[in-house]
Amino acid sequence: MKEVYKLILTFVILLLTSAIVMHSIVIDIGSEVGYRLVCSWYEEVGSSNIDINSSIAVVHQSLALTLFLFVIAVTVFRMEWRVAAAFFSLTMIVILGVTPPQNLIKYGVEWDLILFLIGSMTLAGVLRELGVFEYLAVNVVRISKGNSILLLSLILLLAFTLAAILGEVTSIIYVIMLLFELSRLLKLDIKPLIILSVLATNTGSTALPVGNPIGIYLFFTANMSMGEFLRNAFILSLIALTVFLMLVIKLEKGMIMDISKAFSKSLESIDTFITSYYIRISEKRRLIRSGLIILIAFIVTVILNEYISTYLTLISGFEVDPHSLLSFIPYIFLIISLAIVPPEEVPVLITKSVEWPSILFFISLFLLSYSLVYTGVMVKIAYVLSSIRYPLLVLATFLLTSALLSSVLDNLSVIVSLTPIATLLNNLGFIGRKIYFALLFGGVFGGNYTPIGSTANIVALSMVESRGIKTSWGEWLKISLTSTTMQIVVSLIWLYLI
After folding, report:
1. C-alpha 423: how far from its chain's center?
2. What is the pLDDT of residues 231-255, one digit of tens each?
């Protein structure tokens, strides 16, 4: 009962705080900034008959903010309750009339991302059955030759590189699968490695536009050239990775020592295992080779996705959206894998490989985040930010605000809500295009702070929870706090220099 009372008290405190904050922020529609923000909000809700400052609007804003923050609070309090809390908040959003259910379904969820997630997880399950990840794990251990720092660096570099060229979601699924096999091979506690791999994945996702939905959105919205993106984001991602690796080697000595001990305890047995492994797989080499070909072909197809969509647009006579096309790529390779895997095993693989609690929680967060947009909460936050008048302070504020919000909110929703004010300030000549990169760096790196800060974080934790590995917010923050803060500081310095 104590836990129930704590939750009720938490909800009441959040409700009072949200009401005070939303009531105190009044948008001046007579100002140019206020007018443009409200107009963009009218386009979002599909009506211009709503007063964003009215009492009923403030009530809806307070409820939407409270119910979202309640899910975050419950997740911090008891991670295993997060799905139930998300369902509760979502139900209240609909029952209390905060957001129309048809809008939630139609606009609230990035269904292409959900479809891609399910397909990628299933394909990863197929590749695991074919022995691909065990093969990669054995070779990572063999190449590292007992050097714990080299092993750690290889894993983090792999996570960074895959995220840059495939995107954070695909990258983390395959890296986690690799870590599972590594854990089995070395009898190692991989929880710290999992968290570090997620941080490296998010870092790599800033390198190229395809690495992160935020990058794709800003790339097209701000009409960037690839050269502009590479000059500003790619170089910073390499600097951020270098800082990250240096801090890991400096601060995670205990974990590095544990890896060294695992190596020293089982070095002979590892050598024996590797030798016997290559003998054992002699009959499975064809399956492993086929799995590797599928994996490489999948990676290449994802990289070429934009060119493929352009080609399909030319031959089909209608526009093929590259983001929507990306959702179906995993299923293409699932069909190809049927030449190796019996069709009757596909339903079993879907059941075993797809982390359904993660998918449902992610959908719920999308819907709750949309409710913040629909009710005008995010517009009010953007309006407050627009009151800052010093260019350098604007950059710092946008970077830090997007980082802070992205640590607990869906980072794409945060960036989509802040981009109109960034565009307005840029068009007014008040600040340059650096502001878009402030949003990119803040949105991506800020997601590293907490277990729910980005899609990669949620997917990774759900995958490891299915193996009985529990990770608390305290354990996450212990590893992420210093490195993420340093990456944000480096990003801020970089923005002032470019």
Report:
1. 24
2. 899 999 999 999 999 998 888 888 7
